[in-house]
Amino acid sequence: xxxxxxxxxxxxLAWHGSAHAHSDTSGFAxxxxxxxxxxxxxxxxxxxxxxxxxxxxxxxxxxxxxxVNARVAxxxxxxxGRKVSEGERLAAFESAELETLQRTYLETFRNIQLIAQxxxxxxxxxxxxxxxxxxxxxxxxxxxxxxxxxxxLTSVPIESPVDGYILDIRVVDGQxxxxxxxxxxxxxxxxxxxxxxxxxxxxxxxxxxxEQSREMQPGSPATLWVTNGGGREPLRAMVDQVSGIVNPAxxxxxxxxxxxxxxxxxxxxxxxxxxxxxxxxx
Length: 282
Hints:
The strands form three sheets. The chain has a six-stranded antiparallel β-barrel with strand order 1-10-13-12-11-14. It has two domains: about 45-55 and about 200-280, Beta Barrel (Elongation Factor Tu (Ef-tu), domain 3), CATH 2.40.30; about 65-195, no CATH class. The protein is an alpha+beta fold. Helix 2 runs antiparallel to helix 4. The termini are far apart. It has helices at about 1-40, 95-110, 110-120, 120-135, 140-150, 210-215; strands at about 50-55, 60-65, 70-75, 85, 90-95, 155-160, 165-170, 175, 190-200, 200-210, 220-230, 230-240, 250-260, 275-280. A hairpin with a 2-residue loop joins strand 11 (about 220-230) and strand 12. The relative contact order is 0.18.
């Protein structure tokens, strides 16, 4: 009997010690896990990064349109995201249709004095001819050049209408472009060959927790973290607008930011996802 009691006591003590050890291990794991969770929360608000989305304001996007039947050429060193200046050459086009219009205009220009003797609308005809050429792709400087040379241009440059960035390229070198049917002097719809976004068109929208966004105001500094290769490149930005409404579902405010022009801005694409930190780099 004494042996049986001793055996029962030994098994009971062994089981109790094992359960106690298991309980201690679980407690340590819970404490360790809790420490990892509280680490990021202890960081300063400005050091945290939040998801954001790039938007392009369509009101600040310019379409470059060809309004004559033409062959596009000279697309050299042109790529999406490239910074361009107003009036900068993007490509060129050759058009028999535009060449014919230039010759007609030059005939009027050369003989304007003779035409004035027999018509009271000679100046109006000259102005209309000049407007027609400019509307169909010849710049003001181009019209002045053919007047000086007394001959048409066979290759006409396609120029950027604004300072900004190439958003879209819709043609390739050597492509034939059809301008569509014309129903009037200035009514051809034309074909879009480039889209250029001004710097003001780029908007970044982020949902920031209400606690972090409480002190934010227009002009506050921020950093955009743009994916570039295997890492993220920082791009300076500033807060443009802070919504006064907190989303009850996630307790966040919509914050709109404006990128500050720099090399990294060429990496921004409409609809792209990136990260933003408020208050500078981290």
